[in-house]
Structure formats: structure tokens, C-alpha cells
Design a protein that fits this description.
The complex is a heterotrimer.
Chain A (H helix, E strand, L loop, with lengths): L6 H8 L18 E4 L2 E4 L13 E2 L12 H9 L8 H14 L5 H7 L11 H14 L1
Antiparallel strand pairs in A: 1-2, 1-3
Chain B lengths: L20 H6 L14 E7 L5 E7 L1 H4 L4 E5 L24 E2 L5 E7 L2 H10 L1 E6 L21 E9 L7 E9 L11 E6 L4 E5 L4 H12 L6 E5 L15 H11 L3 E4 L2 H7 L2 E2 L2 E9 L5 E13 L5 H10 L9 E10 L5 E2 L6 H19 L3 H8 L19 H9 L28 E13 L8 E11 L2 E7 L9 H13 L3 E4 L17 H28 L7 E3 L2 E3 L4 E3 H4 L5 E8 L18 E14 L4 E12 L6 H20 L5 E2 L2 E2 L18 E6 L16 H4 L1 H13 L1 H4 L4 E2 L3 H10 L1
Parallel strand pairs in B: 1-12, 8-31, 10-11, 13-17, 15-16, 20-21, 27-30
Antiparallel strand pairs in B: 1-5, 2-4, 2-6, 3-5, 7-16, 8-14, 9-10, 9-12, 14-15, 18-26, 19-20, 19-25, 22-23, 23-24, 26-27, 28-29
Helix pairs in contact in B: 4-5, 7-8, 8-16, 9-10, 11-12, 14-16
Chain C lengths: L2 E4 L3 H10 L4 E3 L5 H6 L7 E4 L9 E4 L2 E5 L4 H7 L5 H8 L4 H4 L4 H7 L7 H6 L3 E6 L2 E6 L4 E3 L2 E2 L6 E8 L5 E6 L10 E8 L4 E7 L6 E2 L1 H10 L9 H13 L11 H25 L1
Parallel strand pairs in C: 1-3, 2-3
Antiparallel strand pairs in C: 4-5, 5-10, 6-7, 6-10, 8-9, 11-12, 12-13, 13-14
Helix pairs in contact in C: 3-4, 8-9, 9-10
Classes of the chains: A mainly alpha, B alpha+beta, C alpha+beta.
Chain lengths: ~140, ~750, ~280
Amino acid sequence: MEAGESLLFLLRERVGLPGSKNACEQGECGSCTVYLDGTPVCACLVAAGQAQGCEVVTVEGLADGDELHPVQEAFVEAGAVQCGFCTPGLLVAVHDLLARCDDPDEPQIREALAGNLCRCTGYEKIFDAVRLAAGRSR
Amino acid sequence: MTMTQPLTADGVGASARRPDADAKVRGDFAYSSDLWHDAMAWGATVRSPHPHARVVSVDASAALALPGVHAGLTAADVPGVNRYGLEKRDQPVLAEDVVRYVGEPVAVVAADTPELARRAAGLVEVAYEPLPALTDPERALESPALHEGGNLVRHLRIRRGALARADVVVTGEYEVGMQDQAFLGPESCLAVPAEEGVELYCSTQWLHIDQDQLAGCLALPKEHVRLTLSGVGGAFGGREDLSVQAHACLLALRLGRPVKMSYGREESFAGHVHRHPARMRYEHGATRDGRLLYVKADILLDGGAYASTSAAVTGNAACFATGPYEVPAVEIDCRSVYTNNPPAGAMRGFGAVQVCFGHESQMDKLAAALGMDPVELRLRNAVSTGSTMATGQRVEGPAPVAELLRRVADRPLPPPAADDPRLLPGGTSNSTRADRLVRGVGYGLSVKNICKSAGYDDYGTARVRLFAHEGEAVAEVHTAAAEVGQGLVTVQAQIARTELEVARVTILPADTEVGDAGTSSASRQTWMSGGAVRAACLAVRARLLERAAALLGEPAGALTIGGGAVTSSARSITLAELLAEGDVDETAVFRHRFTEALDPETGQGDAHVAYAFAAHRAVVDVDPELGSVRVVEIACAQDVGRAINPVAVEGQMHGGIAQGLGLAVMEEIRLRDGRILNPSFTDYLIPTTMDMPPTVLDILELPRPDSPYGLTGVGEPPLLSAPAAIAAAIRDAVGPAAAAALDRIPMTPEAVATAVLDA
Amino acid sequence: MTQFLSAADLRHAIELKAAHPDATLIAGGTDVMVGLNFGHRQESRLIDISRVAELREWSRDGDTVRLGAGVPYTRIVEELGGELPGLARAARTIGSAQIRNRATVGGNLGTASPAGDALPPLLAARASVEVASSRGTRAVPAREFFTGPGRSVLETDEIVTSVRLPVAAGPQQFAKLGPRNAMVIAVASVALTLDPEHRRVGCSAGSAAPTPVAAAEAEEFAAAELDWTGGELPAPVLARFGGLVAGATSPIDDLRGSAGYRRHAVAVLARRTLTWAWQELWRS
């Protein structure tokens, strides 16, 4: 590993966890959002060396075996997945949002997800998925 | 997952679950950028820094001297014809003596790691002799030719009727900037040398056209270039042309080793075509009571350095230049030209988006000149079934244009802005307050062709195999149709469930081992490949009934399929039993009705398979002093014929509206001397959650007589008139004096503020 | 190959920087990594200061907040909205939630971009920047910290350790203009503070000059002209104030906006922030 490379590169190319996505590699799209010691960050903006000794949870870590996490299930059911390239980052961001607030209103959802670009859905079904998952978790 | 569901649940008309969704939410779905082969090398591209230059020499020796660098290839290493292109093979795989745009590939290298490959690409020395660059499309026709035959790609003239003297005449000049598809998944692929030829795993919109072009470039028979679709991270037209494919194959074949290529975002901006920038001059003549008498339009499209799909885009821009209106006389000239700007090609809406901004701006101007409500003016001129379009083609099938407009116009308006910064222009940037805003409402109506046009022999192919597994009938569907996010895999499974009344359907990966599916564009794939799947299912069904008839000793016509069995008046036999004697395997080709080319002199002809229509109403809040805008709500009404999967239809509409919003207010590739100034998501801005307003959809289902299930294509219409409606709403908000200067999209805050200040 | 050095604590960080003055400090990484990922910059050495606990704390001492250079913006939004409302407002406009979870005031200072959103509030509040090196520590007024785009008075062996800001003595505003409603680099921004007790105004603009700039003349003008006993804000005062703030800028034409538009936007935002702060002052 080269310590100056990004955590995203480390995950995708060295560790074999390509679930976190590489859409912009400059923190503008959120498709590489992962938890770093419990905090959602853009993996592309973390130097690999900075993550040493930290707990990293990626989209691959959300499901419980065969059982999808309720946020994942809500994305599937609501039609929030089209091409799906933004989905891994959004799932982590929504997972975090609902962990902090179990009943976010629309402006809260919009502000919380402003860093996750989606080019397919116009976000509407993503908001539906957030509300669906929130309703079920309450 | 379909195991527990009743038969034919999740069939046509249901919002069935995507078969690929579980893998996508788990992060397990393999996009082309995720592909991996233990033995693979990485490719990287050397690109021209000049918009126009002679290539004097290319020297890869310094790159090749690095340990771990294995190849440095140039045009001389292309074994076949060093040309590709969708309509005209005018684009070199690697530049020969001349480069024609900034970012044009000149050489490719391969190395053991991606970092090393990038470094090696930087070490390839290319000597250029810069040539004068043609970057203003207005000057293309008088400039030295960039290609043999001159700088005109296509000029389409449409002439119909005689221009009459009009009571009211309005003219306008409009401009549309260069939009990027901005799909999130970067161009990438994995090429693996095979015993014969090469296997390519890639993201594309059309496997067979890639195969066809690659075979020519690689000097291989087509059957030795086998393509499999990998996960596609969005397309929107930007994956119709080749990008990494030929380069990766060249390197893999040279090395005898798998080669992966994957662009970063900056390279992606150079790696695919963009939406044609357009300059349009319009003149509309009408009677005092608001009947259109004639439309004159002169449209110039900047095609950039290579042809790509410019000719077809030119055709579309010309055909739909007058919009979904009855116009007795037209005089339309649409030209696309070569320049030294980045190549333009397909993007969702394909020529109809640009002219929609033109014709709808004109309709608003005309309404103002007549003192008439813009909705009323549109209603008065809207086409309906039986109307004649500018090309002389009669509108067949449903054309509920007036109805669509009424539906969006009759919606209640959203409440006035509240003082939550997150719902105001600027969002949390705190630049304004509700009392500083002005509200505007605008409308847009649009029309576009569905499927390929002008005599193109378009078809889809599907193979359906029915077999028994664990006592149950399973249908396996195989096509080469590209799933790019739109949900085609879902639709294929739904059709198989409905036609064969089986619960279990498997969709095989799309590849070139089955016949051509055509492109996942032109809003055609559900119609064409859906039609092919349906046809193959019907053939399978007929074979099943024949078998059952023989076994049951009754005529096939007396039998019914359902509940996992074939039943006669007396007896019943399960599908699994029927399939015990062997699988039923049928391949079908589906064609739409024939179209004809347009007359080269008059532009008249029945060139289109079908028309689709959409209406938009946009409500915006504008901060006139700063020029910033928040779109408050978009209402869209669209006739989809039949919603095969309602949730997917809504998803197409939401997404199309979002891309239209982007073009309306923020998205533009900015060029200086042919160079892209903003090749990043920091400066090429696409709408965020804070920019997209709530959308109100109204989906009409008026079945077409000539398509599978009566459906019509849904992908493009929701984008078409969204920019026009938003632009109209901004003009409405700032008032007529400032509106006059707002003749270009994207309407940036600076443009709006400047128009307000100058007014 | 980039050498990656991880600082365990502040002393260690200072030692590393002294030993490797050419090294680039990395905390949140939101600037440094962009350059590295795009291959636009090569770094021979990175010194990671994201684990330096001393940089990640803030404390209040009477009327002053000492804000560690490595406190991420999310915490500034969540924890300092009362003490430092201007900075907290600015912090909320920075990037996305993911960016705010990592990015720091120290990073904005070190990068010294005129578009750093946290910078105008520091200038408006007359903050002081504390820097440390093996030679000792020094405090630099935020208004004197920047020398040009990407340039500051920071010596190559120095590290920004904290910023000292007065606890808000009155309303504070921050407003920013960009071509998108989130996730945007400012075309122009304005920060404003009111201190009614001392009858002082602070005002600074971002993205409108080679560095963030304080609008000293505008501040003095407003301090003198405002009716601090609670009167109206006369339109001519407001207009002149906006003009003076805009006059303090020296914007250029670039991809994101023309000089003229930036100057116009600064004037508008200056008038607005003053209006809103004034309303807030007399509402309470």
C-alpha cells in the first residue's frame, strides 16, 4: 500500500471491496461514503495511512448476512435504485441520518443527502426510501 | 424471490422488484470499473493537449523504460482500419497525423498498476505542430476543412406549405450550452485475450455496434470479438460511442494478457461525446387570434471534431423544430458542423431538447405579443391524432397534447415560499429570505420520436428457453439489450412472467452470443427488446401447446396455459411434465413498422415510428437581485401508452426532469479554445437534493395500436420540455423587460441578475 | 512514493514539520487529497495531524473561544452555534455532511484559498490565528494572515494550532452565493458581526479578492452611522455600506463568475447581512 493513496483506492483495489464507488474522487459525489470510526466520510478524501487502526464500515457491511438492512430493503422497494452507482454511498449516508434522527422531515433529508449526487432518480424515490425505512424503524 | 409469489404476479403492469437491486444495495453488483482479473495489466491513454495540431512524432521509449510498463501503442499498432464511428467511421482509434480536439487519444500504454500506467502515459513524448483551431461553429463553413468533404456534417431542409402574411410575427435567437451526460460510473472495461480474438467486458448502450466497430479496428471476424455487458453506471447517450473499448482490446491482444482501463472523472469529460450546443434563430407568424401560420427556423449544431451521431441529431432537431403544434407552413434549415471542439453526439433528448427551448421560448413570446395566455395559445395550436407534422407525416396513435397541458395547468399551485433557508434559493448559504423572492410559472410542451427513424432497419432479438427445474418451469431470457439503470432487466422478466405464466424467470447477462438488440437509447429498448422477448415467449408458448396437444390428443386451440399447467376441457398436464421431454427454446426477432428517409429537398416523409409527448409546468422562486433560483415544483404529464412497470416509469420521469433542471439552470461544459475548463464535479454542477423540487407526475396510459402492450417509450420525454418550462418560469418571475435578455440556457444566477440589472 | 508521517501529538507534529519543512500537512484531507487523486499535485511527504488530540478540542475562556485547528466543521455547527454563530453559519455551508465531518478551520487557513468559507467569519470577528513551530508560538491576526491566493504568513516549519475568537457580542451573519443550492464554491460571500455594546461592526468578504478581505472602511462607516439606540437602518446608509464593502474587494473574472457580478453580489450580501443582523439585534 502507498500511504498517500486514498482509502477508497485501498478498499477497491487492494482489499477487494469495490462496493464503495469511484464517481468523482474529489468529494463531490458521495458515492464512496463509508463510516470511518462511526463517522460518514468520503473515502476518496481520506489518505489510506490516516485510516490505519480505524474501523471502516462500507456498504458491504450493512446487511446482516442474507438479511438486507432495513435501509437497503427500503431502497429496493421504493424504486430508489436505478443504475445504482450512487446507491452504496447513499445507503451509508441514510443509515447515518436515521441513526441520528428517526423521523427526519423533508428539508432535513435534503440537507443531509446534499453531498450524494444521483444522476438517474431525481432523488424522489430516494426520499421515499428514507421515509419508508424511517417509518419501519420507529 | 419470485418463488413465494403467485403465478404471473409481478407481470406486465406491476411495479416488480428489480432483479439486480439486491446486488446493487449490497455493493456486490459488478460495474465495469469493479472488474478484476488476477493477471490483468492496466491501460492508460495519452491525449492531445491541442484542439488542432499535426502529430509530428510519438515516442514511448521513456515510458517503456520503466519497469512494469509493457506496451506503448500508437496508430501504427492498430491492426485493422483505424477508424470508428456510429454513422460515419471518421474517428481514429489513435490519432494519426492530426489531432482535432483537446483530449483526443494519441497513444495508449499498459503497465502493472494503474498508478504506473498513468505515470507511463505522462512519459510518452508527443511532438505536435499546432494548427489554427476552429472553435466557433458559426465560422465552420468558411474555414479550412477539418475532414475530407468539408465542415458540414449535415444540412437538413424542411419545406412545407407557403409562408403566408401573418398578423403577428415574433423572432428570437436562442442558445443552448453544451451539456454532459455526467453518468456517475466512469468509462471502464476489461479486455481478455481469448484463444481466438478477445473477450470484452464493458459498459455500453449497444453491444453489437461496439462489436461491429471493434472487429473492423482489430481486423478480427466479428465472432472473435465477444462482448459481455458489465454493470453500467448510467448512460444517457454518453455510452453509445466507443471510449475505452478499442484501446483495451488493442493492449490486451498485444500483451496476450487481460487489460483493464478505467477513467477518472476528469478523463471521462474527454472520453465521451456531449450534447450538441445549439444556436437557433426563429420566426413565428400567427393570426391575431393565435393560430400559427408559419415557422421559420435556422439551427446550427456544433458537432465538434468527429461526426458521431450528429447527422441523426440534426434530423431530430429539424423534425421537431416547430414542436407539437400544427403549422401550415415551415421553412427549417438545420446544420451540424465540424469544429475543433470536443465531439458532440447522443444525449437523452437527442436534438429535440435544444429546439424545444427554442420553440417554447417563441410560443411564450408570441403569447405576449398577442396578449394571450401562454397555455391558451398552446392549446389552440396543439397537434392531435390525425394532425400533420412539419415533415408531412400524419400523427398516428394517441396524441393527447392538449390534455397533457391542461393536466399540468390545472394543478393547484404550491404555497408561497416559507422562511426555511433549505427551501430557498441558495439553500443553507443564507443568501436570501422569502420576502426578497419573486415567483414565476412557466410551461413547456414537447414532442420526440420513439425508436430509430428514417428507414433504419431497427430490430430487437430475444431468446427464451423454458425448462423444468425441481419440478417447476423456469424461463430463461437472453438478449443483448443493455441494462443501463432504466430497469430493462425487470421489464424483460415481467413480460416472460406474463406471457408464459411462470413465476421463475432468469435473465441471462447481455452479450453478443445472442442476436442484436439494438441500442438502449431513443426511448426504444422496452418497445424493441420487450417486443422481442414477448415474441419469443409467444413462440415458446405455441411450441408448448403443440406438445400438450399431442400428449392430450386435443387440438392446441382448445388448450389454455395457466397455473403452471396446460389444461383442456378434460385434463391438465403440468409444464414441468411437458418439459420433461426437453427444453423449449425459441429465438425471435422483433421489428417495428417501416419508416422512410426524408426527401433531401423538402424534408418530407414518414420518417418516424411514433411520437411521444410531454407537458411540464415549472414553478420557480427567483432572487432577482442575485439571480439565484430555486425550482419550487415541477409538474409533468406524459402519455406512456402502457406503464409496464409504474415505479420504473416514475423513476424515468423524475430522472429526466432532474437532467432537464440541470440544463435549465446550471449544467454546462465551458470551453475556451476548445479546452474544457470545468472537467470535474466541482465545476460541472449537476442538481443535488437541495436543487430538485418535489415533482408531480401525471401518467396517462393511452395504448398505442402498434406497440407491445400499447406502450410507448418513456425515457426521453420527461426531459424535453423541462428546461423550456423552467426558463419560462424564470422569465415570468423577473418580468418582461429582463426576460427579453434571457435567451440562453443554462440560465445561471449571473445571467439572471445581469438581465434584471440591465432591464 | 509519498512518505507518510503520522503525528501522535502536537509536539510530535511540530518536530516532524521542523524536520521536514517541505512536507504537506494533512488533517481532513478535503483539499490535499483532491490534488493527489487527480494527479495535479505530487507530495514527497505528508504529515498526518488528524490524530493530534490537542488540535481537535475547543474551549472557552471568558469571552474568548480557543478553537483547535483540527475541530471538524460538523462539530462547529453542532457545538458552537451559540458562541460563534457567524462561523457556525459559514461552517454549515461548507461542502456536504461528509466533508464537514472531516474538514477543518486549520485546513481553510493552510490552503489559504480566497474561497475558504470559514475565513470571512474569522476576519469579521477579528480572530487571531495561533501558530506553532519548534521555534515557539506566535499569534497572527486573521486579517494579516493571508498574503495571496494559496499564500499566507505561515513559515514552512509552522503549524496552525488554533484560532482565538471573541464570543459573539451581538448578531453575526454569513451569506454566500453560488450557482447551485448546495455543495458549491462561493462566487462571493460576506461575514458580518455586530457588537452593540462597543458599537463595533465587523465585515469581511470572500471569493472576491486574492485573499479574504476585511472591509475596514465599511466597518468604520457603519459603526459611525448606525443608530445604536435602536433606530431604523436608513436606505442610504445601507447602500453606502454595501458599496464600501464591494469597494474593499478586487475580484477577477473567472469560470465561476465575472468580476462585475462578484462585486455586485458582495454589495448585495453586505446590505442583506447588515439588515438581518440589525433586525436580529432589535428583535431580541
